[in-house]
Design brief:
12% helix, mainly beta, 9 strands, Lipocalin
């Protein structure tokens, strides 16, 4: 993305779909909440329900920092120091109603929404854009969300 307004990006995002990852195994009803820290970095709180949508909540706390101050679209995220990974905002709704987060390796991909459900037509448009840029839509798995 050419420019991300960090203040508008803050808050809770619902995971609509993602490339499956071992660290999210068994997760449903997944959310990510971002808040600004006093030092200008971001707190990250990921939550999900395991083993199903009515299961117990599991959470992970981390932090993120912006590595491309010109666009604010490229971040690094760490849940277990010293390990961290790239977090690139590669697509974003005009009103910040959805976001797509990827990684330069294309091994990670998340489609996020401000609501637990995303309009099917909008979801299809996102998938088409991802495909045009070389991402594999067949790898995406839809994340069950509570209504």
């Amino acid at each position: 993305m050419p420019q991300v307004d960090v203040a508008r990006y803050l808050g809770t995002w619902y995971e609509i779909a993602s490339y499956p990852q071992s660290f999210q195994k068994g997760c449903t009803a997944t959310t990510a909440t971002y808040s600004l820290r006093d030092d200008g970095e971001l707190d990250v709180l990921n939550r999900c329900r395991k083993p199903d949508i009515n299961g117990e909540e599991d959470s992970a706390h981390g932090h993120a920092w912006i590595v491309d101050k010109r666009s604010n679209a490229k971040l690094e995220v760490s849940f277990f120091w010293p390990f961290h990974g790239a977090y690139w905002i590669i697509d974003l709704g005009k009103n910040y109603e959805y976001a797509v987060v990827g990684h330069p390796s294309r091994d990670y991909l998340w489609i996020l929404s401000r609501k637990p459900k995303l309009d099917p037509a909008l979801y299809e448009q996102i998938l088409e854009r991802l495909e045009k840029h070389g991402d594999d839509r067949k790898r995406l798995v839809v994340t069950p969300q509570r209504p």
